[in-house]
Design goal:
This protein has about 250 residues and is of the alpha/beta class. The chain has helices at about 20-30, 45-55, 80-85, 100-105, 110-120, 135, 140-155, 180-195, 215-220, 240-250; strands at about 5-10, 35-40, 60-65, 90-95, 125-130, 160-165, 205-210, 230. The protein is globular and about 45 Å long. The structure holds 2-phosphoglycolic acid. 2-phosphoglycolic acid (PGA) binds near residues 174, 210, 211, 212 and 230. 2-phosphoglycolic acid binds near residues 11, 173, 210, 212 and 234.
Length: about 250
């Protein structure tokens, strides 16, 4: 079943300097009360700093890694295992972001193995899916989402305590372009239908991502099927991050 647990996840990508972590963390801990889990996904070297900051004075937040290995240990230079991420106190991991798929060659099967490893390490995956502009133009949006979900979740097996799915149309990421509310609603409804049979009754939330910013957050947040957002560019500053968080409070 889809649960309506709200999540706002800030994906810093390869951005922000260590010096800014304290100020950013203080700023978001001063947010208004709200039944929304705020998750920050910094580059790997900052994970521990963010975990320490996450429970400072004010409202706590949680921490995610932006990627993980599909291996647990061994001769895999440059890789970071889910167990290591959990070991420094992060609770989530983004898996299968479109930049990982397109720039780093991640396949649906690899993403499925990462989901499996992440779950085994006790992390909640933020599993990203989304169609390219080309596939969208060919009218293959839902077919693509179904293929990505079926391939990854059948590799991973379905027994997640809680899974977060992030729908991010590739053509909307970092471009300023947005799907219309009708497109978002339709895609999220379809995703719920595609994901549920894999999870044997397990709970999941479906986030939207792709050029979410303060000026469009209220409209997108008002869609029942949208449980929150995965945000890149607008998550890098406290005011824009909270400019998305505040309308989510309803
Ligand atoms: P964007 O990125 O908000 O900058 O479009 C979203 C993402 O890639 O997760």
């Amino acid at each position: 079943m889809s649960i309506r647990k709200k999540v706002l996840a800030a994906n810093w990508k390869l951005n922000l300097a260590k010096e800014g972590i304290g100020e950013f963390s203080r700023g978001i801990r001063q947010r208004q009360d709200g039944d929304i889990e705020l998750v920050v996904a910094p580059p790997f070297p900052y994970l521990r700093d963010l975990v320490v900051e996450s429970s400072g004075e004010g409202r706590p937040f949680t921490v995610a890694a932006q990627n993980c290995s599909d291996e647990e240990s061994g001769a895999f230079t440059g890789e970071v295992a889910p167990g290591m991420i959990a070991g420094v106190g992060a609770r989530y991991v983004i898996v299968g972001h479109s930049e990982r798929r397109t720039l780093f060659g991640e396949t649906d099967e690899m993403i499925g193995r990462k989901l499996d490893r992440a779950r085994a390490a006790g992390l909640v995956p933020i599993f990203c899916i989304g169609e390219s502009e080309e596939l969208r133009d060919q009218g293959k949006t839902l077919e693509t989402l179904r293929r990505q979900i079926d391939a990854a979740l059948s590799t991973a097996g379905g027994d997640f305590g809680w899974l977060i799915v992030a729908y991010e149309p590739v053509w909307a990421i970092g471009t300023g372009k947005n799907a219309t509310p009708e497109e978002v609603r339709g895609a999220h409804q379809a995703i719920e239908g595609f994901v549920a049979p894999h999870l044997a009754g397990g709970a999941f939330s479906v986030l939207y991502g792709g050029s979410v910013k303060p000026s469009n957050a209220a409209e997108l947040a008002s869609i029942d099927e949208v449980d929150g957002f995965l945000v890149g560019g607008a998550s890098l500053a406290v005011d824009t991050c909270l400019g998305i968080y505040d309308p989510m409070r309803g």
